[in-house]
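Internal tracking record. Fields below are filled automatically when a chain is submitted to the structure queue. Please do not edit lines marked as system-generated. If the sequence contains nonstandard residues, flag them in the REMARKS field before resubmitting.
Queue: standard
Priority: normal
Entity type: single polypeptide chain
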Amino acid sequence: MKIENPACAKIEEAIAAFDLEGKLVDVKPYGNGHINDTFLITSQTGQGSRRFILQRMNHSIFKNPQQLMENVVNVTEYLREVISRQGGDPDRETLNVVKTRDGANYYEDSSHNFWRVFLYIERTLCLEQVESAKDFYDSAVAFGNFQRMLADYPARDLHETILNFHNTPSRFRDFQKAVQADKIGRAENAMQEIAFALEREKDTGVLLDLLAEGKLPLRVTHNDTKLNNILFDSDTKKALCIIDLDTVMPGLSHYDFGDSIRFGASTGAEDEKDLSKIELDLALFETFTKGFLEGCKGSLTEKEIEMLPMGAKLMTYECGIRFLADYLEGDVYFKIHREDHNLDRARTQFKLVADMEAKWDRMAAIVEKYKK
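SYSTEM-GENERATED OUTPUT FOLLOWS
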């Protein structure tokens, strides 16, 4: 079949490179991710249709696709073994990479784009926002379980697919450079947000200082644990599979906990313009804390648990300064869909940080309640 997709001129070449069962019958854009270009492929076999996820990896962000795919393959193969030992279904409970016809984990096309294919996991759905406390609880158990299953994986063996991805002091320095350069003259539109970020510089190194002192352990972490990076079973509505493993790297458990709270325990959307709608939902914070610690099943240390509120605050703050820096630099990293989109995103994150600070004692009390 002829594929008409001007955004990806090499898509036919890429599809032909992979060992896909059946005859290709349909290709269409899929999802709404910020970074990679994603397509749903349908092929027809003698037993019916098969579906696959094709992605063109953004190599301007992920500088070394080979190392990225080594991480993805090594972690998913490890997870398959763990899931099988637990009596689960590794074909549905983790991603499965489809090899090229040459047996490689990815394909580099003639224009030096990098492509990969996963088996499509049928009968699943993805949630953009928390629809019920049960959804959030199930996602917390899933991310905690992800931590637990990988607790014995040698984290230092993983590549850093994005250098200093959750290194908040490094992100802060990048933000400072963006403010100082102000290369397209946007700083005057964001003076209040810039001041908010600069006032919290002292918080940026808290977790990494504890890691350096040996008071927090290095973990295998997902590093982008938004609710929409979990597939839910469409029949049972239970969390099924963690997806988007591009940023699986060595890290801290607080990164995974914190990013989930940032995204899922907010009362509004990540890019909500009306900031009066944005606050930390303490009931959802409690729901996630309970589920996450249950999923971890004792694999976290006492100090890790104590610092979970700081993880929530720092991941929200860090995301805010990343959105704001990208706004100041001309929206070169995150995809935008309207004018000032990244500024709106930064404002919601900072509103959420301020609300966490106001509710700090209650957050700490909730963590203490579930730590045993």
